[in-house]
Structures are given as C-alpha cells and as structure tokens.
Write a structure and sequence with these properties.
This protein is mostly beta strands. It contains one helix and 14 strands; from the N terminus they run βββββββββββββαβ. The strands form four sheets. Strands 5-7-8-10-12 form a five-stranded parallel β-sheet. A four-stranded parallel β-sheet has the order 9-11-13-14, with no helix packed on it. About 4% of the residues have low confidence.
C-alpha cells in the first residue's frame, strides 16, 4: 500500500505500519512537519518529491530496506539538518536534496550514482564517495560549506560543474583512472583556491 497526497497538510497522524511506499509529492509543502521516522520494508522509488518544500522539516529517520532516494525527495527543505541511516542508499536521484541549506552531513560511502543537482546548494561539508560510479551534472554545485571531496577508484563519469563554485573546498582526491583528467577538471571550476588537489590519471 502507499500513502499520499497530503499536499499542504498542517500535520499528519496515522498508523503507517502496513504501508510500504509514499505517493509522489505526498507531503509537498507541509510547512509544519518537523520530524519523520520511517522504519521497515519501505521503498521510495515512486516517491518523487515526497517531502519537497517542507520548509519546517528538521529531521528524517530512514531506517528502511529501500536503497533509492528519488527525484526531488526533500528538495527545498531549508531547515532539514539531520538524516539518519543514510549509509544504506546507493542511488540518489536528481535534485533529491537540492537547496537543503542546513543539511551538513549525508553518509555517501555506498552511493553509486548521484543524479543531477542531487545536493546542489546544500550545506554538505564532506563528500566521501568511495563507491561512486557516476556523479551527475552540478551534483554538488554551490555547496558553499563543502571542504573535502574523496572519489574512489570505481568512478566512471564526473559530469560538468559537479562541484561548481564550492569555494570552501580545501582538499580534493580523485583515485579513478577511468575518468579523463580534463573531465575531472571541468567538474571543479570557479573555485577560488584548493590547498590539495590530487588526480590519478593515465592521460
């Protein structure tokens, strides 16, 4: 079963133990929603924009079995500062956390694919991408608090402007030899100064 939509609802109280999915934009623009805890056999693949524009949302506890965060999942949640159990997610959809300016941490250790603008204009401070294969265009663009980036050896593509204007970047380490050096450099443009920039490449 799935739940939604509750567009512009001021609060939500329900027994969701038997549900496994939210409909798209189920809680769109629910400004008074502050904390959401979801546990069990949940799958968010069809839940595009489910919490988008919930400007009062501060915390998400996602103790679920699903591994995909869909398009626009929490886009524009400017007060969202804590998301737990994020290490399980392997796919982060386009604009999933776009404009989440208070979100400073998301465990991306097991993430394999990051969609376009996945974390753009968020408050993320560190991107440890050990398992990543594909980083979408502008995935971390304008992340003004981002200080360090680590990209593992399995990365195949880093799209243009992936780290555009991340002006707090101090350390960048890219271990993959599968991505051309020119492609890597195009991802890191319009950045004032980087103290340590390491690229492993054959070209």
């Amino acid at each position: 079963e799935s739940v939604g939509p509750f567009i512009t609802a001021s609060n939500f109280e329900n027994d969701i133990n038997n549900l496994v999915n939210f409909g798209a934009y189920a809680f769109y623009d629910c400004e008074s929603l502050k904390k959401v805890s979801i546990q069990g056999n949940w799958n968010f693949e069809n839940s595009s924009g489910v919490f988008s524009s919930c400007t009062g949302l501060e915390e998400l506890d996602l103790d679920v079995t699903g591994k995909v965060i869909p398009y626009g999942f929490a886009r524009g949640c400017k007060n969202l500062c804590k998301i737990t159990k994020t290490e399980r997610f392997t796919e982060i959809g386009e604009k999933a956390f776009d404009e989440c300016s208070s979100l400073t941490y998301f465990d991306l250790t097991n993430a394999k694919n990051l969609g376009e603008c996945a974390f753009s204009e968020s408050g993320i401070e560190r991107a440890y991408l050990k398992s990543v294969k594909n980083i979408g265009r502008s995935a971390f663009a304008n992340c003004r608090q981002l200080k360090s980036v680590y990209i593992g050896s399995e990365c195949e593509t880093i799209a243009d402007y992936a780290f555009l204007c991340c002006n707090s970047l101090q350390t960048v380490k890219v271990l993959s030899e599968k991505v051309k050096a020119t492609e890597k450099r195009e991802a890191f443009i319009h950045i004032h100064e980087i103290n340590s920039f390491y690229l492993r490449s054959k070209d």
